[in-house]
Amino acid sequence: MCTSSTACDALGGFYNCRPIFPFKEPPMALEKHGTCLCGDTRLTVTVDNTHISACHCSMCRKWTGGPLLVVHCSKPPLIEGRAPSVYDSSDWAQRAFCGRCGTHLYYRLKANDFHAVPVGLLDGDQAWDFDLQIFVEEKPAWYCFANQTKELSGQEVFEQNS
């Protein structure tokens, strides 16, 4: 079962940065690198654990074409090369992408500068731990994940973060 992650708002992305479930293991400050599809934008991210979460809200699905699978950064990503194009997707959040090839680079909360980065963007074969799905009531019936995770409805996400 899940022991991690942050909450997702009803319109997509992460509602705030307060943990839903506290991590039991000490922070590990893992540094990962990634590039966009064309290679013009490179980023370095630091994460405190190997947890991955999925958001099934309609905005995340519209942005990605499916569920948004992310790692949560412990600080803003370091961007090199082409500066990302940034879109204000709501009053509280931004989504960044490569202006040349369109690769999704990160989701950012404006209020506290929290960043979530799509895990598929990162290089290497890290042993990620997919352990949380949120907004499960918005998940379409045409896909599912085989492994067991903690599942939260949008209402549960909001209740745990109010």
With helices defined by DSSP (H or I, 4 residues minimum), what is the helix count?
2
Spatial order of strands in the largest sheet: 8-9-10-11-6-5-12-13
- Name the CATH architecture: Beta Complex
Cα shape: globular
Mean pLDDT: 84
InterPro entries: CENP-V/GFA (IPR006913), Mss4-like_sf (IPR011057)
Domain CENP-V/GFA: 32-129
Keywords: Lyase, Metal-binding, Zinc
GO molecular function, one term: metal ion binding
Q: What would you say about this model in short?
A:
With 162 residues, the chain is mainly beta. It has a single domain (6-160), classed as Metal Binding Protein, Guanine Nucleotide Exchange Factor, Chain A, CATH 2.170.150.
Describe this structure in words.
This protein has 162 residues and is mainly beta. The protein has one domain: Metal Binding Protein, Guanine Nucleotide Exchange Factor, Chain A. Helices cover 9% and strands 40% of the residues. It is built from two helices and 13 strands. The chain has helices spanning 58-64, 154-160; strands spanning 6-8, 14-19, 30-35, 41-47, 51-55, 68-72, 78-81, 85-88, 93-97, 104-109, 115-118, 129-134, 150-152. The strands form three sheets. Strands 8-9-10-11-6-5-12-13 form an eight-stranded mixed sheet. It has a three-stranded antiparallel sheet with strand order 3-4-7, with no helix packed on it. The longest helix has 7 residues, at 58-64. InterPro entries: CENP-V/GFA (IPR006913), Mss4-like_sf (IPR011057).
